[in-house]
Amino acid sequence: MGQVGGEVVVLMDVNVSMFGMRARIALAEKQVEYEYSEQDLGNKSSLLLEMNPIHKKIPILIHNGKPVCESQIIVQYIDEVWHDKNPLLPSDPYQKSQARFWFDLIDKKAFNHGSKLWETKGEELEKAKKEFIEFYKTLEGELGDKPYFGGENFGFVDVGLIPYYSWFYAYETLGNFKVEGECPKLVAWAKRCMERESVSKSLADPQEVYEFVLRKFVGSK
Ligand SMILES: N[C@@H](CCC(=O)N[C@@H](CS)C(=O)NCC(=O)O)C(=O)O
Ligand SMILES: *[C@@H]1O[C@H](CO)[C@@H](O)[C@H](O)[C@H]1NC(C)=O
After folding, report:
1. Which of 3, 7, 103, 210 is least crowded, fewest Cβ atoms below 10 Å from its Cβ?
2. Assigned CATH topology for domain 93-218
3. CA pair distance 211, 183, nearest whole angstrom
4. How confident is the model over 174-210, as pLDDT tens digits?
């Protein structure tokens, strides 16, 4: 059990999940010790169903026996509970609203833009690629010349987006393009994030993600 000062922290997760990676990064940023519990989504455990009966999805953070579900909410929870170390959200209400806006945009768009690359072919795939790149260019525009989305320090929006970087190899291979050619500043940002141990140790191996995508989603294509 991940036990620190009477705290028991468990993360129910799946290694290739970009949502799970967010929780792992946030916990690492706060140096919280926890038990990592890899789940089989093909055969969900009774604990998973008990802890997240509504969505039946990972990640689930279990803090002293109580579940917190949904990665965005988990990251905010971690930031609030362990607030003394490496704050992720800014304290200024307006800046906070903006960080939440961008994280929410990522939640609404990023997964689907990626999936389209293996759900489509021909002209539709070309359109999907164009939209994928437009989306990441929009994010790149928001990043601007800052080192991180929130400015000088690694923060909330970085935690929300960087897990997708471990999926880029799958996107690029199946879509036959390179994100770096289109969004060099964004890829430079991703490499900067990867220099942080919290990120590098939390992200899945791109090859493993690619093989997961082939197994799980491709085949009908
Ligand atoms: N909005 C959720 C998405 C979580 C999610 O999609 N989890 C997937 C794995 S990546 C899952 O548990 N799927 C199980 C299922 O759909 O049966 C979050 O941000 O946590
Ligand atoms: C599903 O998981 C349970 C334990 O959680 C195990 O006993 C059972 O054999 C598993 N079933 C399959 C089909 O893998």
Report:
1. 3
2. Glutathione S-transferase Yfyf (Class Pi); Chain A, domain 2 (1.20.1050)
3. 25
4. 999 999 999 999 999 999 999 999 999 999 999 999 9
